[in-house]
Amino acid sequence: MTATLELARGGAAHHPAAATSLFPTLHQLAVDLPQERAGLRPHGHPSLPALLAAGAIHAIAAHHLGRAAQPVRPILFDKTTAMNWSLGWHQERTIAVQARADVPGYGPWSTKQGIQHVEPPFAITEAMVTLRLHLDDTPVDNAPLLIAPGSHRFGRIAEDAIADTLTHCGTVACLASAGDVWSYATPILHASAIAQGNRRLRVLQVDYAATALPAPLVWLGL
Fold first, then answer.
1. What is the 3-state secondary structure (H, E, C) of 111-132?
2. Can you tell me the distance from the alpha carbon of 181 to that of 100, in angstroms, rounded to the nearest whole number?
């Protein structure tokens, strides 16, 4: 059973059935994208603004960040028996931007599927929220997101301090039904396992922010 959490203290919140009405558009988005990659970046897909920049999903982000909340990076994860993977415990460290620019405190840089990514000052990540829209049921054996509740309040966690942090915070599996949404503080420690059995796991994950980046840097957006 998933523990009851709230975002400010625990770092995550469950929103049952919040994306159910969006199923036709979400499924079409998944069909439109190639299936051979672990994490697909659907930047530029015409359905994204209506899905994520208005309506019920945007309202969740705005509840956490205020009316200025904006989607700044979408990623579609699609685990199948042919494309399955696990992720060890980590914090999100990079953001996606429209173009590279040398700004103090931002770096190193990387490119993922042609999109510029950079590690910002950690205060930028701490001010973000990530939403996960579930297209498939996610019970304990279908690789739910694992989080360490409260770890988002510890700042940047060194690699050699992760084990102690997990012992201190414990771990929770973010179980979900198709149509559910999970929101979590972007810097929370999280991980996922390999999906078990003949299952599929599709999740549209979207980072939100409410502040502008220092010019000339601009969030990637949708």
1. EECCEEEECCCHHHHHCCEEEE
2. 32
Q: Give the C-alpha separation, 192 to 190, whole Å.
A: 7
Mean pLDDT of 18-41: 86
Residue % of the chain over a pLDDT of 70:
96
Label the pairing between strands 95-97 and 87-90: unpaired
DSSP state of 72: E
133, 181 Cβ separation under 8 angstroms = yes
Token pair of 45 as six digits: 């897909």
Sheet holding 201-209, edge to edge: 12-15, 181-185, 129-134, 201-209, 70-79, 39-40
Q: Nearest to residue 7, comparing CAs of 141, 127, 178? A: 127
Angle at 101 between CA 97 and CA 104, to 5 degrees: 105
What average pLDDT is seen over the chain? Answer: 93
Q: What pTM value is reported for the model?
A: 0.94
Pairing mode, if any, of strands 181-185 and 12-15?
antiparallel
| Cα 116 from Cα 98, distance rounded (Å) | 7
Q: In angstroms, what is the C-alpha Rg of the chain? A: 17
Report how far residue 28's alpha carbon sits from residue 77's, in angstroms, rounded to the nearest whole number: 14
Decide: helix, strand or coil at residue 81.
Answer: coil
Predicted confidence at residue 38, as pLDDT, reads 67
Residues 72, 95: contact at Cβ < 8 Å? yes
